[in-house]
Amino acid sequence: MRRTLGSVLFACLGLVLSAQVNYTLTYKDSTASMLKISIELSTPLTAPVSFVMPRSIPGGYTNYIYDNFIEQLYAISNKGEKYLMIKDENDAPRWNCTDTGRQIARIEYEINLNKMERKVLPGDASLSRPGFAGILNYSVFGWIDGMEKQPVQCTIQTFESWPIFNSIHPTTSMEKGTMKFNTENYYTLADGQTFIGPRFRVKEFKGLVPLFVASYSQSEDEYLDDYGLQETMSMGILKEYFGELPFQHYSLMLRKAIPLEPVSAPALAMEHLQSSTFFGDTSDIRKTSMSKQDVIKSMPTYLHHMAHSLIPLRCYGDTYRPYVMEIPPIINNIWFNEGFMWFLPYDTLKLERMKTNFYNSTYNTSPIIKKMSLQQLSQAASTMYGTDFRLGRAVYSRGAMMAKEMNDYLKDKTGGKKSMKDIFRFLYNWSKENKRPFTIEEFPVLINKACGIDLSEIYKKWQLPIE
């Protein structure tokens, strides 16, 4: 039978739509700080069916326990019948509906934001305050096992007059009450962040690509223009360093909230493919414009996290992956992910205090940490980077010191014609062309190939414990 091109395309479109997964996030109970999540399938699945929450996120080197905050989890048939989902007996972050033969149309559950904020570090938690909810998508959205690569339509529902901002499709013309958007798959959805409510602001700045600064400050509004300046300057630095920007827009998400519980651990920022999120209390809000000197002085962390959109989110190796996972990996080269991307702000902003910090965190840290090889240190930091920040500081500082020594060597050998910039570009372009992570064994070969200069001795030196 002959089929026209139009009929073939229509049939293909039908297959795509039939495979779509529909996520709905509802936030209409700000007093109880509860979110309701629904994951609906276009075509019901036959039980057994499993639901999974992530315990690993890109750039978050710890064991996340978002599954602990799920309540009222049910599998529901297309007739509205509810079936109990049972948590894995080993306390894995998955629930199973094992009632074989049942037709499951959707899964529904609730997330207790208040409980989450009290039990995890500030930089890992979604939160709610009067007039505001700040959602880290990966902390509230799980996936139906086997459906994580299917196209997603997401609907955000809240009070009718409340605006909604999402970093996946950012705009200053925010929809109120309901927002719908599509993503390539669950992983893209999980990478985003969502602000809801009348108590946050969004300002757009003109950069190499559109920049959006979304800000919630619980005590008083922040002055945003210097954030915009630092982010647009970061775009220019990265474009010059790598030759391109990998995103078509970028969002800076700022959360300054009074903690519900006393916190001693640092509120580390988090990077995403086209955004970054910064957390903190209200003690250091920006009330007025800064001097040019202070703009540069406070800029490294913003440049560093934007740089992560290239390395390691698009150029990475070993067991690191730029998407959420069920089981946290043990990573042998966090020093590359973090240290090389801390070297970049040092190299471009020329702040000597950064070199001093690298040195002190390498040589003046705990003796037990100094006795670790670089690989051992990275493995330990894989699950304790921020919970014991001695490990985090040590692993990124050794990586930055390695990059600096390589940079000095390259410049000396080539009369300033080659530098770490050439290595970064080479690795980034290699990843684009090969579309895979490099192995830990390939890495020293690739950096030697980048400039045609042997860096093996420097690389080997920094793999050893610190004398």
Q: In short, what is this structure?
A:
The N terminus is likely disordered. Helices cover 35% and strands 22% of the residues. The longest helix has 26 residues.
Which structural traits does this protein have?
467 residues; alpha+beta; Immunoglobulin-like; 7-stranded mixed β-sheet; 5-stranded mixed β-sheet; 35% helix; disordered N terminus
Characterization of the model:
With 467 residues, this protein is of the alpha+beta class. Among the domains are: 180 residues, Immunoglobulin-like (Sandwich), CATH 2.60.40.3650; 138 residues. It has 15 helices and 20 strands. The strands form four sheets. The protein has a seven-stranded mixed sheet. It has a five-stranded mixed sheet with strand order 16-17-18-20-19. Strand 1 and strand 2 form a beta hairpin. Helix 8 crosses helix 12, helix 11 packs across helix 12 and helix 13 packs across helix 14. It is globular.
Radius of gyration: 23 Å
CATH topology of the domain at 19-198: Immunoglobulin-like
Strand order of the largest sheet: 5-4-8-2-1-12-14
| Strand fraction | 15-25%
The gross shape turns out to be globular
Poorly predicted ranges? 1-18
Mean pLDDT: 94
- Note the main sheet: 7 strands, mixed
Number of strands: 20
CATH architecture type of the domain at 19-198: Sandwich
Question: Helix count, per DSSP?
Answer: 15
| Secondary structural class | alpha+beta
Helicity, in percent? 25-40%
CATH first level of the domain at 19-198: Mainly Beta
